[in-house]
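Pasting two entries for a bug report.
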Amino acid sequence: MIEVAGKILGGPESQALRDAIDVVFEQDCERLLIDLTHVPWVNSAGLGILLAAYSRMRDRGGEMRFCGVGQRVRGILKTTKLLTVMPCDADERSAIQKFEEAHPGGRSS
C-alpha cells in the first residue's frame, strides 16, 4: 500500500509518489492500493500520475484500487469520469476485501 499525503499536482512534490509506484512495479506486485485519505486536492497532472499507474497495472494483468478518497477529490474523479474507471473504496479494509474477493492469494503492495 502506498499512503499519500498532501496535494498531488504532478510537479516535484509528487516525485515521492512516482518513486513509490515505480518500486511496486519493480517488485512485480499484482495488486496495488493507494490510500488517498490525506490528499486534499489533485489537479489534472496529478490525475495523470494516478491514471498512468492504474493503466500500467491493468496492462500487466494486475489490479489497483484507491481508498480513503475524500469528498473534494471524489468530486474531481466524478467530474472527470475517472470514478467509473478507477475503483475507489471507503477504507483500507474494504479495498483489501475487494482484492481478496477478486483474486485470492495474489501478491499485494
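Entry 2 (this is the one that rendered wrong in the viewer):
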Amino acid sequence: MVKKLFQVSAVLVTSLAAATGWAQDAGGAFRRPAVIACNPSGWTDEARRYELEGTTVLQYDVDDDGRPSSVRVTRGSGWKILDHMAIRAIESCRFEQTSDPQVVRAGLTQTYRWKLADNGQTPVPAALVAGSCQPSVYFGAFLPVTGNLIRRADGIAVRFLLDEGGNTFGMKSEETDPAAVSAASALIKSCRFTPAMLDGKPARGNMYGWLIVK
C-alpha cells in the first residue's frame, strides 16, 4: 500500500457535526432530526486495497423509529463500492424520535468524502508506458486518473493492481456487460507499466482510470 486511510470516524465526525449544526443553527425554523449515534462498518478491504477516493452524496428519509429509509445516491463517487460504503454508513445511524412538526424527516441529504492520506513515505507511483496499450474493438485508449474520478460519457472506469514487475492483476470494472469487461481486461493486459517504487525498490501498486469507448 502506498497510502493509508483516514479513519472513517473522522468522516462521520464531520458528517455528524454538519447534521447537528443544522439543527442548532436553525433557531426554531425547520430542522432535520438530531443524530443519536452512528456505528459504521468502515472501509472495505477492497476499497483499501485499490486506494479508491471519491465523494458520495446521499438523500434519505427518517422513519418513525429514527432509522434512515429510502436511501438513494444522488451523486455517485464513480465507484459503486464507495457509494455502498456511504449507504451502509448512513443506515447505521439513529436519529431522534420526535413528533415536532418543525423536524423535517424527508429528502435529507448527506455527503461522504472518502479520502486517503499519505503515510509519511515518498513513493513513486506506478505509471503507464506511453503508447504501449493495444486498441481493441471496444476501446481506443486507457487514461489513468489520480484522485477523484470525473464522470465522462465516453468511457468506463476500471481499477487494477500491479506487482513489483509492473504486471497487472485483479482488474475490476464498473461495467457489467461480460463482453465489455473481457475487452477491458484484454486491453489493460496489453499495456506496459513501470512499477511503483518505494525507498528505491519496486513495490506493489495500484492504478485506476478510464477506458475510452470507440
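Dev reply: Rendering is fixed now. As a check, the viewer should reflect this: DSSP finds four helices and 15 strands in the chain.
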